């Protein structure tokens, strides 16, 4: 590697580090209004909630608290660039993640910083071996940082899909247990309480949240409507709406729950059949492109060799 290029890179890295340290000196950094009033509003929570979830005894806690203002500033800039706070808030609710949009943006900043660090490590290794162009390697680091930011968003969508799959798997059993409890003579709230205490899973947690809202003073119908609003599943929305309508109009609740459980199981059976049909088509790809060419080669290769020997 050229010593001039290596010296320039090390000097630039040292200068950037020194600039960051100087900019964070207390007598050079003007505190914002949020920083001045934060000690008086600490009990109300806020952006320090994410920074406080780390164990104070771990070394990572000191790093997070040291770069906390930078992380929040990066989260604000990332929100201005990407936007979509409503979609993120909706997906966080559907994934069952109790975090704000700012905390999610901070996670994206951390993922992007991790990608940029991996890119810098690759660049240093490549430059030490005399491979690659410094500008191209720097661009690669930037692309990895962008990839890290987008990967956190993609992972959130994957979390939503996994949780919705668990909710769909638990819904028929919970509906049937509710139908049995109501048929045994319990009221709707008592049946929900019994099922929520007896079951374990995502849907049981949602039912516990519904019961907590009713204990806080909300009517059961309104709590069920809130469950339907924050869920992204049509089956769960129909389940909550069916419960609310049955409570409002006095319809036999056990029959409604049994019918909904049967409909959900039938929909799951249809989805399973459709998934099997799609997998059957996907299985044709290795058969056509791998197995069939090998079979043809084994069938025709001996004949081709025999014809060559006869012709020779």
From TrEMBL:
<keyword id="KW-0812">Transmembrane</keyword>
<feature type="transmembrane region" description="Helical">
    <location>
        <begin position="281"/>
        <end position="301"/>
    </location>
</feature>
<dbReference type="InterPro" id="IPR018076">
    <property type="entry name" value="T2SS_GspF_dom"/>
</dbReference>
<feature type="domain" description="Type II secretion system protein GspF">
    <location>
        <begin position="176"/>
        <end position="298"/>
    </location>
</feature>
<dbReference type="Pfam" id="PF00482">
    <property type="entry name" value="T2SSF"/>
</dbReference>
<feature type="transmembrane region" description="Helical">
    <location>
        <begin position="109"/>
        <end position="129"/>
    </location>
</feature>
<keyword id="KW-1003">Cell membrane</keyword>
<protein>
    <submittedName>
        <fullName>Type II secretion system F family protein</fullName>
    </submittedName>
</protein>
<feature type="transmembrane region" description="Helical">
    <location>
        <begin position="135"/>
        <end position="156"/>
    </location>
</feature>
<keyword id="KW-1133">Transmembrane helix</keyword>
<keyword id="KW-0472">Membrane</keyword>
<feature type="transmembrane region" description="Helical">
    <location>
        <begin position="6"/>
        <end position="22"/>
    </location>
</feature>
């Amino acid at each position: 590697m050229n010593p001039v290029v290596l010296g320039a890179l090390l000097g630039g890295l040292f200068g950037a580090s020194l600039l960051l340290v100087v900019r964070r000196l207390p007598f050079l950094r003007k505190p914002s209004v949020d920083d001045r009033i934060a000690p008086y509003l600490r009990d109300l929570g806020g952006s320090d909630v994410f920074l406080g979830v780390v164990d104070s005894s771990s070394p990572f806690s000191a790093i997070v608290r040291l770069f906390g203002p930078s992380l929040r500033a990066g989260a604000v800039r990332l929100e201005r660039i990407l936007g979509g706070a409503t979609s993120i808030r909706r997906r966080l609710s559907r994934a069952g993640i109790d975090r704000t949009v700012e905390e999610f943006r901070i996670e994206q900043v951390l993922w992007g910083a991790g990608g940029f660090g991996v890119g810098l490590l690759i660049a240093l290794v490549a430059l030490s071996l005399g491979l690659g162009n410094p500008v191209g390697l720097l661009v690669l680091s930037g692309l990895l940082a962008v990839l890290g930011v987008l990967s956190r968003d993609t992972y959130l969508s994957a979390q939503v899909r996994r949780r919705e799959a668990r909710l769909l798997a638990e819904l028929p059993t919970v509906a049937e247990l509710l139908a049995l409890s109501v048929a045994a003579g319990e009221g709707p709230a008592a049946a929900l309480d019994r099922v929520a205490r007896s079951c374990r899973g995502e849907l049981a947690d949602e039912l516990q949240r519904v019961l907590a809202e009713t204990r806080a003073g909300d009517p059961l119908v309104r709590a069920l409507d809130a469950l339907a609003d924050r869920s992204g599943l049509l089956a769960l929305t129909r389940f909550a709406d069916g419960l609310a309508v049955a409570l409002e109009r006095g319809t036999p609740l056990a029959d409604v729950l049994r019918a909904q459980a049967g409909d959900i199981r039938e929909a799951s059976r249809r989805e399973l059949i459709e998934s099997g049909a799609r997998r059957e088509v996907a299985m044709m790809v290795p058969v056509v492109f791998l197995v069939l060419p090998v079979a043809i080669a084994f069938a025709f290769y001996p004949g081709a060799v025999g014809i060559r020997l006869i012709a020779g």
